[in-house]
Amino acid sequence: MPPMHDPTDVQALKLRAAQRALELVEPGMSVGLGSGSTATLWIQLLGQRVRDHGLKIKAIASSEDSEHLGRSFGIPIVTFEDCPRLDLTVDGADEIAPGLALIKGGGGKLLREKIVAGATESFVIVADGSKIVNKLGKAALPVEVIPIAAPLIRRSLERLGFTVALRRSQNGSPYITDEGNLLFDCSGMVIDDPPALAAKLDTTVGLVEHGLFLNMASLALIATEDGLLERTS
Ligand code: 5RP
User: Fold this and answer.
1) What CATH number is associated with residue 169?
2) pLDDT band for position 196 (50/70/90)?
3) Closest Cα to residue 17, out of 91, 117, 102?
4) The one catalytic residue among 113, 144, 158, 209
5) Could you tell me whether strands 212-213 and 101-103 are parallel, antiparallel, or unpaired per DSSP bridges?
6) Domain range for 163
7) Whether 79 contacts 30, CB under 8 Å
8) Does the pLDDT value for residue 5 go beyond 80?
C-alpha cells in the first residue's frame, strides 16, 4: 500500500514548489498561467505580487478558471495577438517521468495548456513528490476529442490497449472542455514508448489533443518531504 499523506502536508508541498517558481518571475515578463491546484497556488502568489507590490507582468491563461483567478488579482490578461511568445509558463502535472516526460490534463485543460506551453521559452512544472514515476501510465492519459468522432476514437484507443472512460462532470453529464469537446481518460497500460504513442495519437483525425507533454518542460520543481528537487530535461 502507498503511504497515506495528510492532505495538508501535500498542500504545503505544493505551496513550496509554487513559492520556488515565483522566484523565477522577473518584472516585465510575459507569463503563462497553468491550471490545477498547484498552478492555482502559484497564480495566487503571483497575483499578490501584482496587486500588493506593483509587479509589472502580462499573462495568458491556460483555462477560463485561471484567467478568472488572474484577473481577480489585477494580472493583465492578454492574447497571443498582443503577445505571441511567453517568457515563462508555470503549470502542474499528473505524472513526471525521466526526461521530464509528462502526463497532464487531469483537470481537463490539456489543450490550452499545450498551446500555452508550446508558445513559451521556459515551461516550468510545479508538483509534489507523488507525481514522480519511472514510466508514464499510472495516471490515466486524458485525450480530448471532437464529439462526433468520439465513438471512432474510443475504438482506436481500445485497439491500442487502453481502457477508455468518458470523463463526466459531478452531475453525471459528459465533461465538456473549455473548447466544447469531450474527454476520454485512457488507463490500464504502462506507456513504454511515449513518443511512439504520441505520434499515433497526433495523426488520429478528430482527436484534438492528448495529455502527453514530451520535450516541452525545461524544469520541474518537485517538493518532497526530503526537500525541493529541481529536475531539468
Ligand atoms: C490540468 C492539469 C493539472 O496541471 C494537473 O492535473 C495537475 O494538477 P494538480 O496540481 O491539481 O495536481 O494538467 O489539466
Assistant:
1) 3.30.70.260
2) very high
3) 91
4) 113
5) antiparallel
6) 141-208
7) no
8) no
